[in-house]
Recover the amino acids of this structure.
């Protein structure tokens, strides 16, 4: 009996860790490159999820077909958000203020639209991989394993992309010295668009993969948004490695609190941890303050 | 060791330019007139058949304006992105709700504790916030919002009332008077709170405290090196903002004899944000104007149901990007530039002749 | 090659350049001399699109590039080595150099160009894996210069190569600019310091408070120490 | 007794020692200039003295009182006001309001919260008049050209009635005409009895104003003393002046 709880806590930790990591990756990328706090990240998450749901329930296509559609639609939504609401204020003094309020406004509109189109009942998004295993009384689902694998794979992919690819290096260059990047013939504004679209795709993918774990409703974008924000800041704003590590640290912490103290204390526990962390080490694990780059 | 003006006789002793000064004199006439109108209005409205509905709307306007003004004080003037305002409103509401409902206090007594506790809560989260910058403040205050919401829903029975909030809170004991009479009394209480809050906020904005707050927003290092104690100034600001927000929370709990956990929903947040953004970020009249416009819009658009939140979200986003000073100031600037009367001669921005050749 | 006509430019509230006329011919080395704060940097930033020109024209190979975006001007071959280097601090020396060759067609031949730059400045190759912010003042300036050479430059604009450098590093910078000049690359150099530029310039402009006050062949102007003495302060 | 005294002051950013065990003292009423190439640690030293950042080691005494651990607003209220290398201002406020910040909050014991007292307004007007901005009180700080913004920054400092005024590159970024005006203004302030501690690398301004000079490089002192002797010190010439010597035969001042 004793080790079932331990295994449940550890597996829960790994699963939560991957979930948080997946959510935070997109947010960290956008903050690192564009210095934009994208509070619409949660909204794009449910755009992906609802699209996948719509493809499965209305077009009656398998989830495997719905996954890419969800990701593409989420990325497109992010791109359109960039063109309409981010690009016009790039480089302007009121950038932080305008983008903060604009992204909040958009997230409200998205959940309102979801309410109108899909009405408030909970929706079920089928998992990509069904079935599960039983280990010492702990249920480990295939979808869970898929999420862990995808999360780790995406972190590696993004890391390699940023480190070695032409577009990846350009994104880092723009984030560190915008003027110099222009002098290297890097189209700064379009690079911002690329980063925001990529982060939209990541949020969409997270939406499709994670929806089976909880019931999809118009306001189910808010919690992942908060969790992603916590992980991003806990890991040090803009640090991809930080987000990965912080995701697992918080995931394991929440899982252990949930198993040993009860579910009700999970969320408050995380918030108390983050408040303490902000007081003691405001720049996060890997961050060196607001200036942190990718 | 002051700097004597012995240095080169300044021609005539220059005077402070009233126009440039951070303090304002308002004509008592206008303020008096508005107050008088406010006092008389309910008696007139009640006569109309839809009068009661309009008085209810005005009460809603007073309370929303108080919360919007308080939030604007922190975010617009102080440049601190705090998302704790709704939670502070809830703290005020729950405080007086619990005291009146569970302990049987007289609402007029319990409501006094609403702002006190809200201010205490604000100072509690204010302290760590002062050492943080921008993004972190957003997170810390959102965390406080979430913590309060979770506590209100899953907290002890006498707080959470089964997860939906307090549903049977005694209203203000106004004696057994007719419905209209009762509504008018409620209106006067709301107007009282609104007037006091507006006056105090006006006094704060056009005072050294207000100047210190905007100085810290414009350039913190520069302000601090001119003698401004950023912790003290910002804590006072937090306290004032939370005081009136908590008071409004307390009033609304007794006015609607209950407070539901739906107060924490994001749509409440967007309403308040819309008021500040539409009315004018970091201006005195902005949130008041915004409150009126948004409430008016809400009523007009009530027909389209859920589309209202959809429309409001997009409108707020568009205004934030394309009219950063707020819809109203932008419209007024367009009016002044294109349609308005000839602008009075440009300010003396050009070189001052007495200084010697530029 | 590069021509500037009646250029007015400045920052919020104050105009810095009050009508500049200047040209750089094929293979020519031109120096704009002027004390700190008189508009040299503003001039280069206006030409390469980092700063919008209020009025006037900038022509490159006859094309009007005044309103072009900075990255398009760079893609056309007008390469600007900015004041204060503006390196990418958290990226390695090699990555900084590679960014110089970002432009599509150049990226394909980045390996070749990298080796050529390593031959010109061998120490760059040993430091390839080091982050740019860990370099010394002189090294940073050399890296900024080499980053510019990575691109298919048709003209090089270099802003105050020696600003804030110790004398030894200053000499190295001007020697390397000298080798670039010999390769026939047209140069527009903005500088406050007159005594190193003798070999580099064919023509000199004197800039004072945003206006060109003198223009003439390098030999004649650079010898006139009295003029320079009063002028450079 | 010196008005400002630094003993073994150091400031480290990460591994880099921006200021390295620096000791010097400024006498009341003098104009003391600190010169050195870019990145010599001058501004870091200013930040430590003014409380904008904290010195890693060492003691800073202002009018016999240790201030290295005090917060910036406290130090300002003790009578030490500074300007900044980048001309900063409260851009959304009028010129008068900018200066009122200094005169209202810059004095010890000043905790005015709800009303501006007349002395503060008086001091503000006085500072504006001295800096020649009395006629532009209504303009917004963001609309002012560079020279006017520099004067405004100086005026807000003077409005705090300082005993010691710290100027960070007061003539930087000005054309020769504007430079002369700023030099005259600083001379007026010094003549009015305010001790001036100045960072500058425009040699004309330093020679015109400074009673004593400290030459710094890589966070350390190289030479200290009156301009005549310091400018002849071979070490100083080699490290610092070497770069700025105009072309051709060296004019007699730079010769040993």
């Amino acid at each position: 009996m004793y080790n079932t709880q331990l295994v449940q806590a550890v597996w829960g930790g790994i699963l939560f860790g991957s979930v948080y990591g997946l959510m935070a990756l997109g947010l960290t990328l956008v903050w690192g490159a564009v210095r934009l706090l994208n509070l619409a990240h949660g909204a794009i998450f449910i755009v992906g999820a609802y699209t996948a749901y719509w493809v499965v329930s209305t077009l009656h296509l398998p989830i495997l077909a719905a996954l890419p559609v969800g990701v593409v639609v989420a990325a497109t939504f992010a791109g359109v958000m960039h063109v309409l609401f981010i690009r016009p204020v790039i480089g302007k003094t009121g950038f932080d203020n305008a983008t903060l309020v604009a992204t909040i406004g958009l997230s409200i509109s998205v959940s309102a639209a979801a309410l109108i189109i899909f009405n408030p009942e909970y929706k079920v998004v089928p998992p990509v991989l069904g079935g599960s295993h039983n280990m010492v009384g702990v249920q480990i689902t295939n979808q869970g394993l898929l999420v862990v694998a995808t999360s780790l794979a995406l972190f590696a992919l993004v890391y390699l992309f940023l480190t070695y690819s032409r577009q990846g290096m350009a994104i880092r260059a723009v984030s560190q010295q915008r003027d110099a990047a222009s002098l290297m013939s890097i189209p700064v504004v379009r690079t911002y668009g690329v980063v925001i679209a990529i982060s939209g795709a990541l949020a969409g993918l997270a939406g499709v993969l994670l929806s089976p774990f909880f019931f999809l409703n118009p306001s189910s974008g808010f919690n992942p948004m908060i969790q992603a924000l916590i992980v991003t800041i806990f890991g040090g704003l803009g640090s991809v490695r930080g987000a990965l590590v912080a995701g697992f640290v918080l995931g394991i912490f929440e899982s252990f609190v949930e198993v040993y103290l009860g579910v009700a204390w999970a969320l408050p526990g995380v918030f108390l941890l983050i408040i303490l962390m902000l007081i003691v080490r405001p720049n996060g694990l890997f961050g060196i303050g607001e200036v942190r780059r990718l | 060791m002051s700097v004597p003006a012995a240095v080169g006789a300044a021609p005539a002793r220059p005077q402070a330019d009233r126009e440039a000064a951070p303090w304002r004199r308002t004509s008592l006439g206008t303020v008096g007139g508005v107050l008088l109108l406010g006092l008389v209005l309910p008696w007139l409205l009640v006569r109309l058949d839809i009068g009661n509905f309009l008085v209810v709307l005005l009460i809603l306007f007073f309370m929303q304006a108080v919360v919007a003004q308080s939030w604007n004080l922190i975010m617009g003037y102080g440049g601190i992105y705090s998302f704790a305002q709704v939670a502070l409103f809830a703290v005020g509401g729950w405080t007086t709700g619990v005291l009146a409902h569970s302990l049987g206090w007289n609402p007029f007594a319990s409501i006094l504790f609403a702002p006190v506790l809200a201010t205490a809560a604000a100072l509690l989260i204010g302290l760590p916030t002062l050492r943080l910058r921008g993004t972190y403040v957003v997170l810390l205050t959102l965390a406080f919002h979430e913590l309060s919401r979770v506590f209100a829903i899953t907290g002890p029975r006498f707080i959470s009332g089964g997860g939906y909030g307090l549903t049977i809170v005694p209203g203000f004991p106004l004696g057994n008077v007719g419905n209209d009479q009762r509504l008018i009394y409620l209106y006067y209480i709301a107007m009282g709170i609104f007037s006091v809050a507006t006056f105090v906020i006006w006094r704060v904005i056009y005072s050294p405290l207000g100047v210190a707050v905007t100085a810290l927003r414009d350039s913190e290092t520069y302000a601090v090196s001119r003698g401004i104690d950023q912790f003290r100034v910002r804590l006072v600001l937090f306290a004032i903002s939370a005081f009136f927000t908590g008071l409004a929370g307390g009033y609304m709990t007794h006015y609607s004899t209950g407070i539901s956990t739906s107060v924490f929903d994001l749509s409440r947040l967007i309403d308040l944000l819309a008021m500040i953004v539409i009315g004018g970020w970091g201006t005195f009249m902005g949130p008041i104007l915004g409150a009126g416009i948004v409430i008016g819009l809400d009523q007009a658009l009530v027909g389209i149901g859920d589309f209202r939140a959809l429309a409001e979200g997009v409108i707020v986003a568009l205004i934030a990007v394309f009219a950063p000073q707020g819809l109203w100031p932008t419209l007024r600037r367009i009016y002044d530039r294109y349609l308005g009367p000839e602008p009075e001669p440009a300010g003396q921005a050009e070189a001052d002749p007495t200084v010697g050749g530029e | 090659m590069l021509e500037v006509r009646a250029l007015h430019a400045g920052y919020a509230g104050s105009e810095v350049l009050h009508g500049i006329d200047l040209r750089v011919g094929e293979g020519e080395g031109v120096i704009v001399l002027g004390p700190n704060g008189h508009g040299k940097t503003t001039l280069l930033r206006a030409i390469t699109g980092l700063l919008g020109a209020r009025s006037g024209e900038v022509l490159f190979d006859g094309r009007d590039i005044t309103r072009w975006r900075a990255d398009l001007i760079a893609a056309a071959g007008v390469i600007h080595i900015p004041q204060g280097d503006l390196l990418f601090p958290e990226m390695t020396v090699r990555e900084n150099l590679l960014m110089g060759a970002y432009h599509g067609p150049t990226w394909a031949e980045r390996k070749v160009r990298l080796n050529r730059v390593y031959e010109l400045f061998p120490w760059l190759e040993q430091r390839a894996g080091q982050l740019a912010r860990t370099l010394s003042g002189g090294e940073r300036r050399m890296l900024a210069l080499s980053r510019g050479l990575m691109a298919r430059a048709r003209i090089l604009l270099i802003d105050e190569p020696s600003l804030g450098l110790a004398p030894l590093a200053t000499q190295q910078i001007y020697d390397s600019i000298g080798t670039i000049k010999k390769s026939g690359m047209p140069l527009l150099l903005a500088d406050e310091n007159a005594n190193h530029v003798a070999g580099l310039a064919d023509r000199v402009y004197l800039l004072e408070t945003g206006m060109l006050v003198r223009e003439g062949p390098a030999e004649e102007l650079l010898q006139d120490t009295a003029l320079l003495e009063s002028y450079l302060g | 007794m010196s008005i400002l005294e630094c003993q073994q002051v150091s400031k480290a950013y990460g591994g880099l020692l921006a200021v390295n065990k620096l000791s010097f003292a400024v006498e009341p009423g003098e104009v003391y200039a600190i010169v050195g190439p870019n990145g010599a640690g001058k501004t870091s030293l200013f930040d430590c003295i003014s409380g904008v950042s904290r010195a890693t080691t060492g003691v800073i005494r202002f009018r016999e009182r240790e201030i290295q651990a005090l917060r910036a607003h406290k130090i300002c209220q003790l009578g030490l006001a500074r300007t900044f290398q980048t001309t900063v201002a409260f851009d959304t406020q009028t010129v008068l309001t900018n200066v009122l910040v200094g005169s209202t909050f810059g004095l010890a014991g000043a905790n005015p919260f709800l009303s501006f007292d007349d002395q503060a307004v008086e001091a503000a007007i006085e500072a504006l008049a001295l800096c020649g901005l009395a006629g532009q009180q209504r303009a917004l700080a963001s609309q002012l050209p560079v020279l006017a913004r520099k004067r405004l920054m100086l005026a807000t400092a003077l409005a705090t009635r300082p005993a010691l005024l710290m100027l960070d590159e007061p003539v930087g970024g000005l054309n020769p005409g504007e430079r002369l005006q700023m030099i005259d203004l600083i001379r007026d302030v010094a003549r009015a009895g305010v001790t001036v501690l100045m960072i500058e690398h425009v040699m004309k301004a330093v020679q015109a104003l400074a009673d004593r000079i400290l030459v710094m490089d890589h966070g350390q002192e190289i030479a200290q003393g009156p301009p005549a002797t310091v400018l002849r010190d071979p070490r100083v010439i080699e490290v610092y002046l070497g770069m700025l010597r105009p072309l051709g035969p060296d004019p007699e001042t730079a010769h040993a």
